[in-house]
Input
Amino acid sequence: MVHASRAAQHYVQTQVRSSSPLELVVMLYDGAIRSVTTALDAMARGDIRTRRDAISKALAIVGELQGTLNMERGGEIAERLDALYTWMTDSIVEATVKQDPKPLEDVRRILDVLRDGWQQIAARPVPEPVA
Output
């Protein structure tokens, strides 16, 4: 089992190293969506440990997404994403405190929309530099 875990870690590390910055953003969204989904499932089952771990991971990923925003170059889009990430963090905390799945469901819906948008951007061909 330990060998399989190491192989999985190696695969993920290779995938991260070979991905473009846009693909990495999509991977972060995928991780956040998985974590929020896991938290929702754990909340429904009353599995406190799994819920806590998934919430912590979701908060860390949203924090990473927010922390990588370039507020100077990103302009209004960066400002709006920053506000959205703050809302997500607040909603995740609210869901945990109130033991209410609704804020997590709302966050997951927004993450899905953002992930799809970033996936479309990442899938666009990169224009050739003009010499």
